[in-house]
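Worked problem 6 (solution included).
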Amino acid sequence: MSEPEHPSALALDSLAAGDPVPEARAHVDTCAACTEYVETLRAEAAAFANAPAPAFLANLESLAVEIEPNAKTEETSPEAPRPEAPRAEETSAPYSDEIRVEEIRVEPRGPANDVGAEASRVSSIADARAKRARVFNFVYAVIPLALVAAAFFVLRPSGTPGPDGFPTASTEATMRLKGPPVLAVVRERQGNQERFTSAIAVAPDDRLRLELTVDREGMYEAGLLGEDGSWLMLLSPTMLTPGAHFSEKAAHLDDTPTPGWLLAGPPEDVARARATRDFSGLAILAVKVAPSP
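Solution. The predicted structure is:
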């Protein structure tokens, strides 16, 4: 009976490092040699991680002495003569860009190879994965904040204040939407301006100017519809391009303001809403009267 084929060294290393490798796990459970190899890797990795710093440095120094004994001797011996730099006329290579290729030998790895080197590599892999996890956590935390900041600068109205203190109309396409237009209102009260995107409470002497954002070119109309049927047009039927726009007029409320609705949309839909109170297809904001102090 032929000996069963062992998993690759990479699969065994990954299993020793804690990665789920089902094929290698199934083989290791039935192979004594591979089981010994994996357990040895894990034991060496644990010993390497728990080794005190002085012992670790001593191992590095002994390894350096074994690899480069001649170089260390030349550095510490003051009598050792320094080799002279080759002169230009003695250089045998005819061209300065000539490349010398040296033979590279790759030794196969297996259960009988140096376990200490494998344990060091397994520990390095674990450290690299921990650093990568920290980087991913940082990126996942920063990206949502960056998106919120970008949305603030991109989606905010781009109009500049006009002579009356309200923003002027703007046709710059600063926001792309789908569906009905989006309506907001700027309320000025005692010199202070505030922007609303939902129901608004008004008081005598307030001034209101509409901000209309559309996603397609077309005719639009906007105004203030009172519960008593009164209509104050703030934007006459106008062809608007995609983007944010402000009404050409501002509503200046008298001493007895009337509750109602701010409407914006195609002129035919506005006319239907004025007649039937059917606000479908329109942008709408409820207007309430604040109680007297």
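Discussion: The CA atoms of residues 201 and 255 lie 14 Å apart.
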